[in-house]
Design brief:
alpha/beta, Rossmann fold, Dihydrodipicolinate Reductase, domain 2, Alpha-Beta Plaits, 3 domains
């Protein structure tokens, strides 16, 4: 049978990895797919560099539309990234009857509903395993492997840059800014790391997983997003003393009132497997009603790990290329006409527990006033840790503090976020609370 022909838009880190892995494992992939898969055309602005990477047997052009217009191309791989021209090209490829493989989580999180609807109407597939957690096959697990389950929640370390930074902060006792510079020097963080450190990249991925898990449209604009820029070494140290580790998690949960969709730093019990995922690695925990808890771990980025996911999508499409469109796995796991309108909850309605750190004047009655405000708000306290004033003095770098002060750390039981927000505002107004209160949410993941 004639090999299926693939056009590649963009041959950067992932594109070159995809070309190399596909060529290296060509025979094994053919045995699995049932026919050969060949990248026969590449579009890249740097034509000379691209031609050098792929060799003389592959056509290289500077215009991506030339790939889409080629009638011999069956599948288009989009590896350009971003929301702009990438969306235009994906929609044009779909309109031309081409199947699409993409690693573009930002595009799908923001425009996925429109893209999937266009693909369904045209009878083509859009595959995106590489868009979430790199080489970890979490999309296939959610769409197919766990299809018998009612998914209850997902929690994932799905951004390697932030996990590397938090791991270094914990191991070396350094503050965020210092570790960020080191991460940039080592290539783990971009020159402009905003999407990573502010949680946006993780929120794109969590949005996609949420849609697949619960059969809702992709709704990135409803996600709550908070990054790691305000975390200090002190919080990581205190968490460790209390038996927790701090990770940036993408979380989505099914509740009676709606779907939670949020990204923020979390305290996780140190005994949980996901709490021990270090460096730039990714991990996703999925809780299903039938299977229980499952964990997926691996490299979340990189040339060949991401290429592994891209090629898995190519194989899936090749196997189903001639199948009736109605018999293919739906883009979001549920049939398009069966998607739910279950609302995504605003953060104020989310129920979770909390870690609070208050820098307070070291004088009689301060702790009683703080805990009294929490009691009045109906917030139950799980644990309290109070530092000695002389320990705070030694860490300040000077032998004397103008006002004797100490850190009070409070762990709470579950409460509604809006209630906690109001309580924090009241505590912050106390004259004995000397600095902005640090609040980190806590997830037991039991």
């Amino acid at each position: 049978m004639k090999p299926i022909q693939v056009g590649l838009l963009g041959i950067g880190v992932v594109g070159s990895g995809t070309f190399n892995v596909l060529r290296r494992n060509q025979e094994e992939i053919k045995r699995r797919a049932g026919r050969g898969i060949e990248i026969t055309m590449v579009a890249d602005l740097n034509v000379a560099r691209a031609q050098e990477l792929v060799g003389p047997d592959v056509s290289v052009v500077s215009d991506a539309r030339a790939v889409i217009a080629n009638p011999d191309i069956d599948i288009v791989i989009e590896l350009i990234g971003g929301y702009g021209i990438a969306k235009t090209l994906v929609m044009e490829a779909i309109a031309a009857g081409k199947h699409v493989v993409t690693a573009n989580k930002a595009l799908l999180a923001v425009h996925g509903t429109e893209i999937f609807a266009a693909a369904s109407a045209r009878g083509v597939m859009v595959a995106f395993e590489a868009a979430v957690a790199g080489g970890i096959p979490i999309i296939k697990a959610l769409r197919e492997g766990l299809t018998a389950n009612s998914i209850q929640w997902i929690a994932g370390i799905i951004n390697g840059t932030t996990n590397f930074i938090l791991s270094e902060m914990r191991d070396k006792g350094l503050d965020f800014g210092v570790v960020l510079k080191e991460a940039q020097r080592l290539g783990y963080a971009e020159a402009d790391p905003t999407f990573d450190i502010e949680g946006v990249d993780a929120a794109h991925k969590a949005t996609i997983m949420s849609a697949i898990a619960f059969g809702i449209p992709v709704q990135f604009d409803k996600a709550y997003v908070e990054g790691i820029t305000k975390l200090g070494a002190a919080d990581i140290r205190y968490a460790e003393q209390l038996g927790y580790r701090i990770k940036l998690l993408g979380i989505t949960k099914r509740t009676h009132n709606g779907i939670e969709l949020r990204v923020h730093p979390c305290l996780i019990p140190a005994k949980r497997l996901i709490a021990n995922v270090e460096g730039a690695m990714n991990a996703v925990v999925v809780q299903g009603d039938a299977v229980g808890t499952t964990l997926y771990y691996g490299k979340g980025a990189g040339s060949e790990p991401t290429a592994s996911a891209v090629i898995a999508d190519l194989v899936d499409i090749t196997r189903l290329h001639t199948a009736d469109a109605a018999q293919r796995v739906p883009h979001l796991a549920f049939q398009p006409n069966a998607l739910s309108n279950t609302p995504v909850l605003p953060m104020g309605e989310v129920v979770t527990s909390y870690y609070l750190r208050l820098r307070v004047a070291d004088e009689t009655g301060v702790l009683a006033r703080v805990t009294g405000l929490l009691a009045e708000a109906g917030i139950s306290i799980d644990a309290v840790l109070q530092r000695e004033a002389d320990e705070i003095r030694s860490e300040s770098g000077s032998g004397q503090l103008q006002v004797p002060q100490t850190d009070v750390i409070i762990l709470t039981h579950d409460c509604v976020e809006a209630k906690m927000n109001a309580a924090i505002a009241q505590m912050q107004a106390l004259p004995t609370v000397l600095e902005p209160i640090t609040r980190i949410r806590k997830e037991e993941l039991a």
